[in-house]
Amino acid sequence: MAQQGHSQVSKYLFHTAAVVGDYTAKGTYIDLDGMRVYTTGPSTATSAIFIIYDIFGFSPQALQGADILAHADQNHQYQVFMPDFFKGKPLPLSVFPPDTEEKKKRMGDFFAGPASPPDTAKKVPNLVKQLGQKYTGVQKWGSLGMCWGGKIVSLTSQSGTPFSASAEVHPAMVDPNDAKGFKVPVCMLASGDENPEDVENFKKNLGVENHVETFGDQVHGWMAARGDLKDEKVRSEYERGYSVLLDFYHKHL
User: How many whole angstroms separate alpha carbon 107 and alpha carbon 104?
Assistant: First the structure.
């Protein structure tokens, strides 16, 4: 079974902002061939993490997560890059859950248009290549996909992947068939909202080293835009999730 329960208490340094509106991102934004990219972490770090955010774009929780990965372990930091695939026009958080016909249509149109997984996946290798040409000190790349981004990670972790390790948190559109083609180690942190059978079969189909864990009392999106960090339990599991990711990246990057 996919792992349940709780990992060890974090050994990393967290200063998680409970009120997301009060969070001030530590990084900066660069222009990469017309695409805005959030970047954080020391330029001396030789490993980098390429984050594919969720459909809600540059949320404070996602930006804070990027900063945590970059800085939480002073002895092993990362350069982190998060491109704005939606070019400043993410889906409003109010559209989720899609519990009306209007919301369903808006979400469907978004996934068929700017959030098309196959079209987005095609852009990733070139973006990583361009970043590598600009940040020449990076020797290894990891990926992280949040919700919708998890699907993009699955599609870009197959043969020819630019990544040395991949991770997905509360992934959307979990397809056990995707797992068969993974060529690099993967960490999947599912919420209680993902289909447990899909998560279980995804793990069974993996032929690479993996860590698959379910945070059963957390909602889809708790480590990104839907994480209510004012809630002590959510904030604790948000931090634990990022601790698991850091352990994983430290091992493989």
Answer: 5
